[in-house]
Write a structure and sequence with these properties.
Elements: E1 2-9, H1 12-19, H2 21-34, E2 38-46, H3 58-68, E3 74-77, H4 80-83, H5 87-99, E4 103-106, E5 110-111, H6 120-153, E6 167-170, E7 173-176, H7 178-192, H8 197-206, H9 219-237
Parallel strand pairs: 1-2, 1-3, 3-4
Antiparallel strand pairs: 4-5, 6-7
Length: about 240
C-alpha cells in the first residue's frame, strides 16, 4: 500500500528527548518496509501542538490532500499522539480519514482499527490510548504553567513556546522583531485592501515573509495573527 507519513513535534525539547522528526521518519519508513508498504510522501508539522485542530496544521492538511487526490492510500504515524494529543481531535481526525476510506497505521499499534458495532472494546481501547495521551499533555502543561509562574515572579518572559509573532525573546525579555512586524503590517494592509486570507498567504510567502516555524503561510494562521494584532492595537489605544 502507498502511504503518506505524517510527522509532528511540538517543541525543541521533544526532539532532544528522542521524539524528533528524524527519529519518527526512520521508524515509519522501517515499519512500512517491514510490512510490505511504501512511503510515497512525508509531511511534517514542526512546533505544532497535538491539541491543535486539523485546519491549523499545514503538514496534516498536506497529508489529507495526498490521500484525497489518490497520491496515497493510507496514512502512517509514529504513534497516535503524533496525530493528536487531545481525544476529540484524535477521533475527529480518524473519522475524517476513514470517511475518505483511508487506512491508518501507527508504528506501535499497526493498523488502527475502525469502529465495529459488534466489538465496542475496539473503540474503547483506541480511545484509551487517546485519553492517556491527553492526560500526559495535561500533566506537562500543568508543570510548565508552574515554571512560567516562577519565571514571571523573577521578571523573565513567562510565555510558552515561541514568543508571539512579531516579537522575540532576548535575555528573558520580549523585544520587537522588525522583520516579523513588517510581515504583520503587510498582511494588515493587504487585508484592508480586500485581499482574501489565501491570497495574503501566497503573497507573503512569495515576498519572503516567513512564519516562525514553517516555510509558508496558512489562511487560518493569518486569521489568528491578524485578530491578535487587532486586539493588541485596541488595547494600546485605550
Amino acid at each position: 500500500m502507498k502511504l503518506v507519513a505524517y510527522l509532528r513535534v511540538s517543541t525543541e525539547r521533544q526532539a532532544e528527548e528522542g521524539l524528533g522528526l528524524d527519529v519518527q521518519d526512520r521508524a515509519v519508513r522501517r515499519w512500512a518496509r517491514d510490512n510490505g508498504h511504501r512511503v510515497v510522501l512525508v509531511t511534517r508539522d514542526e512546533g505544532v501542538s497535538g491539541s491543535s485542530d486539523v485546519d491549523s496544521r499545514l503538514g496534516l492538511l498536506d497529508a489529507l490532500a495526498a490521500v484525497r487526490h489518490g497520491t496515497a492510500e493510507g496514512l502512517i504515524v509514529y504513534r497516535l499522539d503524533r496525530l493528536a494529543r487531545k481525544l476529540t481531535v484524535q477521533e475527529a481526525t480518524l473519522a475524517k480519514l476513514w470517511e475518505m476510506r483511508v487506512t491508518v497505521f501507527s508504528v506501535d499499534l499497526g493498523e488502527v482499527p475502525r469502529d465495529d458495532p459488534d466489538d465496542p472494546m475496539r473503540t474503547a481501547l483506541r480511545q484509551m490510548v487517546g485519553v492517556f495521551a491527553q492526560l500526559e499533555r495535561g500533566v506537562i502543561a500543568a508543570r510548565l504553567r508552574s515554571g512560567r509562574l516562577l519565571k514571571a515572579e523573577r521578571g523573565g518572559y513567562a510565555g510558552f513556546g515561541a514568543p508571539p509573532y512579531g516579537t522575540r525573546c532576548v535575555d528573558g525579555e520580549l523585544v520587537v522583531d522588525t522583520c516579523e512586524q513588517r510581515a504583520v503590517e503587510r498582511a494588515h494592509a493587504l487585508r484592508c485592501s480586500g485581499a482574501s486570507l489565501r491570497t495574503i498567504a501566497e503573497m507573503l510567502t512569495e515576498e519572503g515573509h516567513r512564519p516562525k516555524r514553517t516555510d509558508r503561510w496558512h489562511p487560518e494562521t493569518l486569521r489568528r495573527l491578524l485578530a491578535r494584532a487587532a486586539t493588541s492595537a485596541d488595547i494600546g489605544s485605550n
